[in-house]
Specification:
Blueprint lengths: L3 E5 L4 H13 L4 E6 L6 H4 L4 E4 L5 H10 L2 E3 L15 H5 L5 E5 L22 E2 L4 H5 L8 H14 L4 E6 L2 E3 L11 H10 L7 E3 L5 E6 H16 L13 E4 L3 E4 H14 L9 E3 L1 H4 L11 H7 L4 E2 L1 H7 L8 H13 L2
Parallel strand pairs: 1-2, 1-4, 2-3, 4-5, 5-7, 6-14, 7-11, 8-10, 9-13
Antiparallel strand pairs: 10-12
Helix pairs in contact: 1-8, 9-13
This protein binds NADP nicotinamide-adenine-dinucleotide phosphate.
Length: about 350
């Protein structure tokens, strides 16, 4: 029997790319996606993918799909802001005997809430092999922690019944492979905010704050490998002992000022700005940028914090390493997409 995969977020940047990679690598899989709105070309592009209409409030649909599926993969919005209740689907999905691969993000590692860390290099690089215990006990106000906490608990309590893995990508670049959103968020927001810094690329403090990155195609490839591990009932899908299988996906890291300069050079080449040299700005300027109603400090997180991770588990299990161009080589694609060119 064909393995049954249930996927949420298939119109998103990550989820759309994951769906595309899964269908391409495994046309034999029986895939069902839950959509709020079906993109026009969806059925003609993916004639063998089943659609259920619903959202994260559709508790019955989620429970039914989780009962039916061998592997459930969430690729929807998680809940970034601290102190917000996590989405319900994890609760709906957990009691069912299946493999659950949940999308999180390395925002969970970010030091955005420590003012002394902003704009300077933080030496801490997290490993998904040796820092599992740390990941299991990150503070409650870390981004995504509200949802991850449930999953760490569930892995410890119900690990025999439901196998859990967490995909934790860093910042992502490159053109998405799906039919919905094909742009990542960082470059688009940064270019919007260049205007607020007087049409100059910008940095805070020393600008040496450093973040990990992955190309969307490398991430989608890793997703396929982890789903394959679930389908093959590979014990490595779930983590050692009481832990979920935790997957960082980073393939490289860059400091903020280098990324700013590279974006500035492309913006200058495109005639959008005159001076590509990054300018130092204060926190009062950063705090006016990239507003999100649920996360007022989003800009500190994006532009001034560190978030460093190494995909050691994927490298060990699957020989995972970058196949796509690096961020600075591939950046023009993202800048042009953000400019609508
Ligand atoms: N992009 C990055 O650089 C990055 C890096 C690391 C982690 N992440 C995390 O990954 C998550 C997804 O990122 P993304 O860039 O793929 O986002 P995206 O392009 O905005 O996609 C979000 C997906 O979630 C769906 N969705 C949102 N609310 C929903 C709801 N209530 N019920 C059902 N579906 C819902 C959207 O459906 P509609 O099309 O119907 O709106 C869409 O398919 C984010 O939470 C982010 O924290 C992102």
């Amino acid at each position: 029997m064909a393995p049954k995969i249930f996927l949420t977020g298939a119109t998103g940047y990550i989820g759309g790319s994951v769906l595309h990679a899964l269908v391409t690598a495994h046309p034999e899989y029986d895939i069902t996606v839950m959509l709020r709105k079906t993109p026009e070309a969806f059925t003609s592009t993916y004639p063998n993918v089943n659609i259920v209409q619903g959202d994260y409030d559709s508790a019955e649909i989620l429970a039914e799909q989780a009962r039916r599926a061998d592997v459930v993969t969430t690729a929807t919005q998680t809940t970034p802001p601290p102190h917000r209740p996590p989405h319900r689907p994890h609760l709906n999905l957990l009691p069912n005997p299946t493999h659950l691969l949940h999308l999180s993000g390395t925002g969970i590692l970010s030091d955005w809430s420590s003012p002394s860390r902003l704009g300077v290099l933080n030496p801490k690089i997290y490993s998904d092999l040796t820092d599992l215990q740390t990941m299991a006990s990150l503070p409650d106000d870390a981004l995504h922690r509200n949802t991850e906490k449930i999953l760490f608990h569930a892995a410890a309590e119900h690990g025999e019944k439901v196998k859990i893995a967490i995909m934790c990508p860093p910042d992502i670049y490159g053109r998405g492979l799906g039919l919905g959103n094909t742009q990542s968020v960082f470059v688009r927001l940064y270019i919007d905010d260049v205007q607020k810094a007087g049409n100059r690329p910008f940095y805070y403090n020393e600008g040496t704050n450093t973040r990990s990155w992955v190309h969307i195609e490398d991430l989608a490839r890793l997703y396929v490998r982890v789903v394959e591990a679930a389908v093959g009932k590979d014990k490595g899908f779930a983590g050692p002992g009481e832990y979920p299988g935790y997957y960082f996906a980073a393939t490289q890291e860059h400091n903020h000022i280098d990324v700013s300069r590279a974006i500035g050079n492309i913006l200058k080449k495109e005639g959008v700005i005159e001076d590509p040299e990054p300018v130092r700005v204060g926190l009062e300027v950063i705090d006016q940028m990239a507003k999100h109603p649920l996360f007022p400090m989003l800009a500190r997180y994006l532009y001034a914090s560190n978030s460093r991770s190494r995909a050691e588990r994927a490298e060990k299990m699957f020989g995972y390493k970058a196949a796509a161009p690096g961020l600075l080589e591939g950046l023009e694609t993202d800048v042009l997409a953000a400019l609508g060119r």
